[in-house]
């Protein structure tokens, strides 16, 4: 009886852990409000690239201009502006 409990535990525990990890990964990847579905907004996020644990580089478009931003937990700084900022 006790052996059957451990067999179920060894099978179900990694399965539940994997499902939780997969759900969190999908939530982060397809988070609402990110790159998709921006429509007619005057400010659009074109691309974001993680840089280290807490920082990102982001290219946004505002009034026809592309702006390269450095984004960290406590600060957002403009790095470059204009049409020379290219996005794939």
UniProtKB/TrEMBL annotation:
Its main location: membrane. InterPro entries: Flagellar_biosynth_FliO. GO terms for biological process: bacterial-type flagellum organization. GO terms for cellular component: membrane. Keywords: Cell membrane, Cell projection, Cilium, Flagellum, Membrane, Transmembrane, Transmembrane helix. It is found in: Cell membrane. The chain crosses the membrane at residues 6-27. It comes from the Bacteria. This is Flagellar protein FliO/FliZ. The lineage of its organism: Bacteria, Pseudomonadati, Pseudomonadota, Alphaproteobacteria, Sphingomonadales.
